[in-house]
Amino acid sequence: MGADALELLAESIETVRGGLAILDAAGSVLIANERYRKIYPLVAPWAGGDGDEGIVEIDGEECWIRINERPMRSGAMMRRLIETTEQKSREADLMTSQMRLREAVEALEEGFVLFDRYDQLVLCNGRYRTIFSAIADLIAPGATFEMLVRAVVARGWSIEQESRDEAWIAQRLAAHRAGSGVYEYLMSDGRWILARERKTADGGCVVTFADITERKAAAERQRQSQKLEALGYLAGGVAHEFNNLLTAIGGFAKMALRRLGQADYVRECLDDIIASSDRAAHLTRQLLAFGRKQPLDAEIVRAADIVRGLDRMLRTLVPETIELVLDIADDDAAIAVDPNEVSQAVLNLAINARDAMPYGGRLVVGTGIVTAPARPATVEKGLAGVRCASIFVRDTGSGMSGAVLAHIFEPFFTTKEQGKGTGLGLPAVLSIVERSGGAVDVETEAGRGTIFSILLPLATGAPEALRTQPHRNVLIVIAEPELRNLAYAALTEHGFQCARAAERDEALAILARTGAPPDLLLASSAVPDKRPDLAAELMVRFPLLKFLCVAASARAPFTAEQLVADVRAALDAAGPVFLEAS
Predict the structure, then answer these.
(1) What is the location of CATH 3.30.565.10 in the chain?
(2) 299-465 in CATH: which number?
(3) 82: which strand partners?
């Protein structure tokens, strides 16, 4: 090699970072840069060959040096002295960070596991191993998420038996691949585990597992406590209501006994006793409606037919100061419900709306098909965003504040004056609707009125697919003995249970004696009595009663066949109805 070439080589190796030298076959230095000449004497005491590494002091600072030797084709050898101090510092920092991370992960009360983008386990803590002790032998770096899920299932450490099949595993893996999620698991040892998954920026996944068994137990204890509290409140309210009613009944009975010779006074006392007993019966019906939790024996009916059947009754309940409007849309909206129960719910809402407008207003009862809004009640029932039949009651009354709205479905909560409300009307509505698979939506504002919407899933099939099973109790109130006896004979022959009376007082006496509410009132158009209309009076006592009016005299006779057909038609109609015999 010429002098120029050697000079060029010497200049070149000076630009190399770290020490660099070329040694001949005997190990003598042929050429070296200044950094090599400075460092090698410090390294020589421990240098043994390629790969050796140690610490030397250079300019008063400790430096890591690693020896790297490579043979050359000429037989010479190139030796490099690589300064690795910064790399060692970074490695030390990294190790410190990893150690702190592991310590932090181990300190977690929750189980922790990290999977990389290939779904292989990278890191986990001891709590994770404890929770899944049944597969502890498989928990190691490189284990895949799917392998661990299958092991948990195969070893019977998962939830119910149905989770031990391919369908459940496929569903769980699909949810894992889809991204973040929260899952609850009931373990075979009775523990409840809450898992939270979250994707990492590099495509991996972090999963934490918390034992929520005690939290679940505490929540259940709280629910039981709330149930007991509600039961106590309910029992206290019932006792208070019935005590008031019994006090009234006993008081009027004693007053009547003291004046047995005064017929008018005794009659007034008896009327008050009947009113109190009717109120007690109404309270009992509301309690039964509130307490029933079993599914209804549903029929397919049109929502519009239920509201139309309530028209006459609503007009008897609403004073002239309130404008009553039926707003019926979507005539063919079919629902699978007990029409009598739903009719009772609508009547309860209408009565509340009436009472909210003591100085008059506008009451609209209507139907339609709507998309259920996303509110807690609809979300809980899975109806949010679903097309539903709606039966709504809208008033222009006093409305409700948020504080009142929060309690309206609690039993015995009422804003009405003492003696004017039981506080069971709205709980009964909610119970009826929820047992029908629906939800109650409320829109209100203090001073701006209220809208109650009964939202029910649309039924498949025509309403005619199922017909109401005819009820059998018929109360016949016809003054003319010939017509009364004919009606009685015709209906009993066809299996109806009938009671017959000539006028109002006799009919009321029969009801008081039997205690069985009639399903249908069959009466002549003019029962000779100066007192309030019997049908309207009984409708108040028996909201689901149906009324069939027949001709007033024998000069406009009816046939037995026509009468039976008309009675069946009235009983088959959805909700309360007022019909005239053909």
Answers:
(1) 299-465
(2) 3.30.565.10
(3) 66
**Could you give the CA distance from residue 521 to residue 79 in angstroms, rounded to a whole number?**
116
**pLDDT by residue for the chain (582 residues), tens digit each?**
556 666 777 777 788 888 999 888 888 888 889 888 888 899 888 888 888 888 888 888 889 989 999 998 888 899 999 888 888 888 888 888 878 878 888 888 899 999 999 999 999 999 999 888 888 899 999 999 999 988 888 877 655 444 456 777 787 788 888 777 787 777 777 788 888 999 888 889 999 999 888 888 887 787 677 666 666 666 666 676 677 778 878 888 888 888 888 888 888 888 888 877 877 776 676 566 555 544 456 788 889 888 887 887 788 778 889 999 999 887 678 898 888 788 888 988 998 899 889 899 999 999 999 998 888 888 888 888 888 999 999 999 988 888 788 878 887 677 666 555 556 778 888 888 988 889 999 998 888 899 999 999 988 765 543 344 444 689 999 888 878 888 888 887 777 888 888 888 888 888 877 666 788 899 876 555 444 477 777 777 777 788 888 754 444 456 777 888 888 888 877 555 555 555
Q: What is the CA radius of gyration of the chain?
A: 44
Domain 108-211 of CATH type 3.40.50.300: no
CATH number of the 473-580 domain: 3.40.50.2300
- What is the CATH topology of the domain spanning 216-291? Helix Hairpins (1.10.287)
The CATH number of domain 3-88 is 3.30.450: yes
Tell me the H-state helices in 187-338.
213-258, 263-291, 303-309, 311-317
Query: Which is it for the CA torsion 89, 94, 99, 101, positive or negative?
Result: positive
The residue to which tokens 């392998």 are assigned: 147
